[in-house]
Amino acid sequence: MKSNQIKELKKRLLEIAHLASISRLLNWDQEINLPAKGADYRAASISELSAILHTKLLNLDTDNLLTKLKKEVDSQKIRGKEAIIINETWRTFDRERKLPEDFVRELAEVSSKAQTVWIEARKKNDFSMFLPWLTKIVKLKRKETEYVGYTVSPYDALLDQYEPGMTTAEVSKTLDNLKVFLVPFLKQIRDSKQKINSKALNGKFPIDKQVEFNKKILAKIGFDFDAGRLDASVHPFADGLHPHDVRITSRYALNDIFYSVSSTIHEAGHALYEQGLPVEHFGTPLAESVSLGIHESQSRFWENMIGKSLSFWKYFYPSLRKDFPESFTKLSTDDFYKAINKVEPSLIRTEADEVTYNLHIILRFEIEKGMIEGTINLKDLPKIWNSKMKEYFGIEVPTDSLGVLQDVHWSGGGIGYFPTYTLGNLYSAQFYQAMKKDIPDLPKKVAEGNFIVIREWLRKKIHVSGKTYTAESLVKKITGENLDSKYFTEYLTEKYTKIYNL
Ligand code: MG
Fold first, then answer.
1. What is the CA(398)–ligand 1 centre distance, in A?
2. Cβ atoms within 10 Å, residue 482
3. Residue 267 Cα, ligand 1 centroid: separation in angstroms?
4. SS3 367
5. Non-local CB neighbours of 295 within 8 Å, separated by 6+ positions
6. What is the pLDDT of residues 223-249, one digit of tens each?
C-alpha cells in the first residue's frame, strides 16, 4: 500500500519535472534564439505552462496522497531517502498552497510590469518613476510573508524560499562579522603602495577564438559536452534541464578576454553541479540542488578560488599566450595573475572583485531587510544607498542608475535572494579548506592541469546527494563545523596580502 503511494507520488513528480524542463528550454531558447517578434507569444506560452505547473503541484495532494505520506514520515513509519523525497516535496507544496491564486497572479503581473518600468527608470536615471512600483512590490512581498508565515522576522519567510532553514538573524550576524573585516581590509588594500595595472589585460580578441579558448577550459575542468553546451547571451546563466542536458552561456567583449573567461568558469561551476546530480533520481528532490547558496558556492569556487588562482594560470597561461600571442607574450604569468585579481571599489555589483563583492551584497541585504521589516521609508532608498556606498567603499555614487537602480532583483519580486550570493562565497571557502585537507598538493595538481580530482571531490561530497542534506547539515558533514565566515576572511587575507604586499 505504502509503496504504491510512493510510486504514485514519484510518477506525479516526474510529470512536473518534465514540464519544468520544457519550461526551462523555452526560457533558454528565449535568451538564445528567439526572433524579436516572438517575445509576447513566448511570454504567453511560458505563463501558460507556469499555470499548469502550479496546478500539477497542488494536485500532488489529490486524494490526500501527500498528506498521508507526510503523516507516515512524521510518525517515522517512512524513513531514509523516501522520507527526504516526501519532506522536501511537502515543503514546496506547502508554500505553494498557502498562496491564494489571485495573489500569485497579481504578484506575477505587477513584477512583470515593474520590470519594464525599472528598465525605463534606469535608462532615464529616474528613481521617482520606479518608486510607486517598488512600493507595490514591497507591499505584495510583505503580504506573501503573512501568507507563508514566520516566527521572528517577516524577511525569514522570503529568505527561506532561496536558502531553506537559514534565518534572518543568522544572516545578519554572519554578514555583520564579515563587514567588520571587509571595510578595514579594503582600506588597507587601497592604501597599499602596490598598484596593479589591469589595462595589461586589454587587447584585441576575436570572439570565435575566445569561444574556443573558453571551451578548452570547460573540457579540462570536466564539463561534459555530451551532456551540455555553451552559448552566448547578454547576461550569462546556467540552466540544468536534466543532468544530461545542462546549458550555460557566457558573454564576450572584443577587448577583454577575461570578461568571458570568468563568466564561463562561474557558470561552469553551476553546470558541474547540475551534471553531477544523480540521474536515477531525476524528478525527485534527491536530484535537486540543496539551495541557491550551495549552488553559488560551486560557481564562486570555480570562478575565484580556482579560476583566479596562480596555479590555474600556471597551467592555462601558456595556452592563452599561444592563442593570443600579441597580447600576452610580454606579460608575465605573475603580472597576468595580479591583473585579474585587481581590487578596486566600484559602483556595479556584477563587475566587482572578490574582496568588494560581498560589501555590495551586505548593503543590499541591509536595505531589503529594512524594506520588508518596515524600518525604512522607500522614498529614502537612494539616500540610504549612497551613504552606505560612501561608508563601506569610500566612493560617491554619481547617479541612481549606477546606484540603487542597477539590479533587476527587486523589480522582479526577488527580495531575499541577495544574501545567497555571499553565503555561496562563505560556503565555498569552508569547503575549499576541507578539500585541501583531503587532497594533498592541491595547488600542484591544479598547476599540472589535474582538475578532475576537484570535480570528483565536489561530486562525491556535494553533487550526488541532491537535497539529502540541508545547507546547514551539509556544511557540518563536510567540514565538521557550522558555517563560519573566518574561512573566507582567512582565504582573502592570505591571497591579497601577497598580491598587495600588505
Ligand atoms: Mg551564479
1. 28
2. 11
3. 6
4. helix
5. 270, 273, 289, 424
6. 999 999 999 998 899 999 999 999 999
**How far away, in angstroms, is 77 Cα from ligand 1 center?**
39
**Among positive and negative, which fits the CA dihedral 147, 163, 243, 108?**
positive
Alpha carbon of 502 to ligand 1 centroid (Å): 30
- C-alpha cell of residue 394: 569610500
Strands (E), 244-384: 245-250
Q: How is residue 142 written as a grid cell?
A: 510583505
* Residues recorded for the chain: 502
pLDDT digits (tens, 9 = 90+) for 165-196: 999 999 999 999 999 999 999 999 999 999 99
In whole angstroms, what is the distance from residue 425 CA to residue 431 CA?
A: 10
Name, in order, each residue with C-beta under 8 angstroms of 208's C-beta and a sequence gap of 6 or more.
none
Q: Is 351 annotated in the active site?
A: no
| Average per-residue pLDDT for the chain | 96
Assigned C-alpha cell, 418: 541577495
Instruction: Classify 278 in phi/psi space as left (phi over 0), alpha (psi -120 to 50) or beta.
Output: beta
Is 367 in contact with 375 (CB distance < 8 Å)? Answer: no
Other Cβ atoms within 10 Å of 428 Cβ, number: 28
Q: How far does Cα 427 stand from its chain's mean position?
A: 12
Catalytic residue among 88, 163, 267, 366: 267
Lowest mean pLDDT among 22-36, 356-370, 391-405: 22-36
Q: Collect all residues with Cβ–Cβ distance below 8 Å to 487 and sequence separation of at least 6.
A: 426, 429, 430, 432, 433
- Counting Cβ atoms within 10 Å, is residue 226 exposed (0-12), middle (13-18) or buried (19+)? exposed
**What is the separation, in whole angstroms, between the first and last Cα of the chain?**
67
Tell me: the pLDDT tens digits for 446-479? 999 999 999 999 999 999 999 999 999 999 999 9
CA-closest candidate to residue 201, choices 250, 150, 259:
259
Return the CA Rg of the chain: 23
Residues forming beta bridges with residue 256, ordered by sequence position? 202, 253
All domains of the chain, ordered by start, with CATH?
2-149 (no CATH), 168-206+291-500 (1.10.1370.30)
Residue 138 alpha carbon to ligand 1 centre in Å: 24
Q: What is the pTM of this model?
A: 0.96
Residues surrounding ion ligand 1 at CB below 5 Å = 299
